[in-house]
Amino acid sequence: MPATDPFTGHPSHLQGPRLPGAEGWSAVLDGHRQRLRALDQLGEKAAQCGIRTDPDRALVIAEADEVGLLEFAEERWRDLGEAIRAFRATLPLVRLEDFGFSSEAEDPFEANTTQLRRIGGGVEALAFADPGLSVYKFFLFREGGAVGATFAFARGEGELLQARAVPGSYRRLFEKLRLTHLLGMPTEIAGITREGILVVKQTHGRLLPEKTDMSQLDPTRLMPIPSRFLRSDRDHPRLHFLDGEPWLVGDTHDRNVVVAEDGTWRVIDLVAAPLPPEWLGQSALFAGWIERARRDPRAEALAAGNDDEL
Question: Which stretches does the entry tag as region Disordered (predicted)?
Answer without folding.
Answer: 1-24
